[in-house]
Amino acid sequence: MISKYINPVLLPLLLLGVIIAIWSYIAVLIPGFPTPGEVWNELLIVLSDPLYDNGAGDQGIALQLGNSLARVFGGFALAIAVGVPMGLLIGMSKNAYAAMNPYIQILKPVSPLAWLPLALFVFKEVNTTAIFVIFVTSIWPIIINTALGVRSVSEDYLNVARVLQLSPFEKVFQIILPVAVPFIFTGMRLSLGIAWLVIVAAEMLTGGVGIGFWIWDEYNNLNYSHIIIGIILIGVIGYILDALMGLIADFFDYRKRGLK
Amino acid sequence: MSAKPFLKIDHVDKVFPLGGGKEYVALRDVKLDIRQNEIVSIIGHSGCGKSTILNLIAGLDTISNGTILLEDKHILSPGPERAVVFQNHSLLPWLSVYQNIEMAVRKVLGEDLSPSEIREHVMKYISMVNLDHAKDKYPGEISGGMKQRVGIARALSIQPKVLLMDEPFGALDSLTRANLQDHLMRIQMQTGNTVIIITHDVDEAVLLSDRVVMMTNGPEATIGEILEVNLPRPRNRLELQHNPEYLRCREAIIEFLYSKFAKEDE
Ligand SMILES: Nc1ncnc2c1ncn2[C@@H]1O[C@H](COP(=O)(O)OP(=O)(O)OP(=O)(O)O)[C@@H](O)[C@H]1O
Ligand SMILES: [Mg+2]
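ok -> structure tokens follow
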């Protein structure tokens, strides 16, 4: 009985001890590698004043993260606005599928970072470029999962729509979307996860502001503690984003509302 | 018997293209006239084309040759005057019992009814299948028999001219099945609907129908015989058990299915 409550707390703590031991050993092996204690102290300092703003290139950690999040959500929102209708179209029309599928298959495996130089050339501006890269990152899983959701609508439901003579508009909102929404959210959750991965790399390349740039900047400042702090914060925020998306997805999934 | 048929299936063929230039002739020269207020059942071996006929009447599939006329109008596409009760009920699982019916009523009769009239109308059909207590439940929360009753209520609520039922009770246990058959007969006496019901079950066919349409086996399946069931309504399954007319009809169907058009394969 007790072990049921203790294990989820005790076991990770035990493992944390092991990790700190190995980490400390690495810090001994590599001169200059920050020790756990140093990182902890730095973390407290960084978090104590997260909002300071000394102009470009010297801003608090919350501002860095906020900038990255804003870009991620910007590109992500655009990807939803474009990807969901496209996914609906591809899912509902065989012709649209035939027309677009080859391009989706070819563009999907391209690293979003490959678009970055081109975007920089076109937009000549860091922020728009980052948002565009996130857009390209996010759109494929959204399109593909939306189309999958549409195609998973059972023939029976469509027959109900036909007998009732629902208009295409009514069909989309009353029959297709309720089935497809959980799939769309699966796609959105995947997209957001990858977008959060990509933004760090994109910002390292674009510079300016953002958590990715911050980490790269601290490398140039030889401030390795901050790199580790960056890694930890990126992980924590990624986890929170994923958990939130999961909650929202469950909320919109009729199958998870105590129904079958 | 009125002279003019209500629903006229006239020399209908159904050919499915199979790809590679091949085709499968499922139905050949099907002719059937159905009267208003009649309950007709279609019985035949699996794969003979019962669902195909029903889908043609529903307009869910296209006729290859021939015509189907409902009150002299060609059937070319699906429409609410030909409501379908699907074998697997096909209720929308994200809507409650009430909402499933309400959605159909709103779409088909919505323009003529005020919100309170819609509510009244929906509740009338929920009551008709005795599901008042379950009106706010979701399809996932009710039994198979209840779901099928909702399916029937939904189909009737849009006041169709013809009610098409494809093995509506096929997936149910025999007690639930008997119960739903009684529901259906009672409702049909109240509403006077024209009903076409597909079944595998000989007793169900005799109990429910004014006429039983027996189909030959495919390919090129067609109507083999049509049996008139001359039993008064309301019918009671207990009293019918030893009724000579009931037994005669039963025997005729069994003779057709297992002797004249027995299925060797399977
Ligand atoms: N879309 C299709 N393409 C090709 N053949 C089809 C198609 N639909 C049905 N068939 C064939 O037509 C025949 C009749 O099918 P149908 O579903 O009408 O049979 P059924 O009498 O309803 O059978 P069951 O009692 O098993 O439901 C079958 O041989 C089937 O394989
Ligand atoms: Mg069938």
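Chain A has a mean pLDDT of 91.
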